[in-house]
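Summary of Year 1 activities. Much of the first year was spent building the evaluation harness for sequence design. The harness presents a backbone, in tokenized form, and records the residue chosen at every position. We chose the following record to illustrate the format because it has been used consistently in internal testing since the harness was completed.
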């Protein structure tokens, strides 16, 4: 809940964000986040990279303490002196790389990464601009300052959010069912 130590980070992240000179402003990638991946792929291919998709990696191959490629699940060996992984550090450094090659202190850090997150974000497409009782839309239903930020639903007070958090925790304790 909001009173949990560290939870203010999420709010701080939203408040401190910005685009160019506009603090608190947020932007969305035209075409969605997939267009970022596509742009990176086009740039990599233009620089001579080969991209394989739907090709799971079984192992990162190492010879004389240097990466020399990967072996795919189907047994195909792809030779390369550089391997980029989009997997988590746990998968990359514990599952597909021989972890005995890593310094023990580094491996300890990898093993203690906590991947859980209490955050949920939902972007909603609407058929018209929302009108708020406290700040109704002007003539012509044009966007106003009240539409230029994040809208938090059912969070009119910190105590309300704390109660919702406590209720969710209680439901888990009673039912034993997790929402994860």
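For this record, the design step produced the sequence shown next.
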């Amino acid at each position: 809940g909001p009173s949990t130590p560290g939870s203010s980070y999420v709010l701080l992240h939203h408040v401190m964000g910005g685009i160019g000179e506009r603090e608190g402003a947020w932007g969305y990638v035209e075409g969605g986040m997939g267009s970022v991946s596509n742009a990176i792929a086009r740039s990599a291919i233009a620089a001579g990279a080969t991209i394989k998709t739907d090709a799971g990696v079984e192992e990162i191959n190492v010879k004389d303490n240097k990466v020399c490629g990967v072996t795919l699940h189907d047994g195909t060996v792809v030779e390369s002196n550089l391997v980029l992984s989009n997997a988590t550090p746990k998968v990359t450094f514990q599952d597909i790389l021989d972890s005995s090659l890593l310094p023990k202190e580094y491996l300890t850090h990898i093993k203690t990464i906590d991947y859980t997150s209490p955050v949920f974000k939902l972007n909603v497409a609407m058929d018209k601009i929302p009108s708020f009782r406290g700040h109704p839309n002007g003539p012509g239903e044009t966007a106003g300052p009240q539409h230029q930020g994040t809208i938090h639903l059912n969070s009119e007070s910190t105590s309300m959010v704390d109660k919702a958090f406590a209720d969710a925790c209680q439901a888990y304790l009673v039912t034993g069912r997790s929402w994860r």
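The chain has a mean pLDDT of 82. Quantitative recovery figures across the full test set are reported in Table 2.
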